[in-house]
Automatic annotation (TrEMBL):
Its EC number is 3.5.1.28. This is N-acetylmuramoyl-L-alanine amidase. Residues 204-214 have a biased composition (Low complexity). It is an enzyme of class 3 (hydrolase). It comes from Intestinibacter bartlettii. Keywords: Cell wall biogenesis/degradation, Hydrolase. Pfam families: Amidase_2, DUF5776.
Length: 287
């Protein structure tokens, strides 16, 4: 089981607007954004605990709102409500979802590196602690309410490939394939550039053993590789259809045990015993 992240406890008092004390048996984790970029976590915590919880009206209606966790721009994780009590964040999913409000930055509401790391760490740990599946049980607010009602968190809803990558990062961490230090912020504006730069500088060092015109390969052996395009992995060190064992998905990370030299594109033997291409179109050096 992965180590629990550092959590700053800011328990909300029992109140009908945010912490009604109703028991929760969580089967999903819902992520949210606070609605405006560059609003830090402590402000959101204070709004829930010191404003809404005391009874706060907009127009003539009281606001009912809270969140189990809030993550700040520096990666701080605040907890306001125990995970065995419901909060008011995710509409009809309040009865089964743990909610995490996450601070965002920039006009597109992406995440700082520190925020992203904490978000992955907290979700991976919660999935482990509550026996949930990172790939299936981490959801967005919009998954529950639909796009017409609300785009939340807006960056993840507008960039579903990043949401997919986020869930894979959580799963990789939960399964011990990567450590917290290995987490790369896929929402960073530099992310795609970083990945392609890595692939480029690695392939620049490659040998020209590729005599089938299959593109550039890595000459050195990485410790871990990351899949950058979905690609088959194989039972034997060849690319025959009969040896296909499954598909490695974009974003997944694998540990390499050996480089297999071939006539044509070389392959990595993975720790799992399967084989996968070294082709830089499909795999990038991770570590
Ligand atoms: Zn939301």
């Amino acid at each position: 089981m992965i180590k629990k992240p550092n959590v700053i406890e800011k328990w909300q008092k029992r109140n009908k607007y945010g912490r009604p004390g109703v028991p929760l048996s969580a089967t999903k984790i819902a992520i949210h954004y606070t609605g405006k970029p560059d609003v830090d976590g402590d402000k959101t915590v204070s709004y829930f605990n010191n404003v809404v919880a005391n009874g706060y009206k907009i127009g003539n209606r009281y606001i009912f709102a809270s969140s189990h966790y809030v993550i700040g721009l520096g990666g701080e994780i605040y907890q306001l409500i125990p995970t065995d009590e419901i909060c008011y964040a995710t509409n009809s999913a309040n009865s089964y979802a743990i909610a995490i409000e996450v601070a965002t930055t920039g006009s597109d509401n992406h995440y700082t590196d520190a925020t992203y790391k904490s978000m992955v760490h907290l979700c991976a740990w919660l999935c482990s602690y509550k026996n949930l599946n990172c790939k299936k049980d981490i959801i967005t607010h919009t998954d529950v309410v639909g796009k017409k009602y609300k785009l939340c968190p807006i960056y993840m809803v507008k960039n579903p490939d990043k949401m997919q990558q986020f869930k894979i990062d959580c799963d990789n961490l939960k399964q011990g394939k990567i450590t917290v230090n290995d987490i790369i912020n896929c929402t960073s504006p530099n992310y795609n550039k970083k990945i392609s730069d890595n692939a480029k500088s690695d392939s620049d060092n490659s040998t020209s053993s590729n005599n089938q015109g299959n593109g550039e390969q890595y000459a050195d052996i990485p410790k871990m590789i990351k899949i950058i395009h979905d690609v088959n992995y194989h039972k034997t060190p060849d690319f025959k259809n009969s040896s296909i064992a499954g598909i490695a998905l974009c974003g997944e990370v694998f540990t390499v045990s050996q480089l297999i030299k071939r006539n044509g594109t070389d392959m990595y033997k993975l720790k799992s015993g399967y084989y996968i291409t070294t082709h830089a179109k499909y795999v990038a050096k991770y570590k």
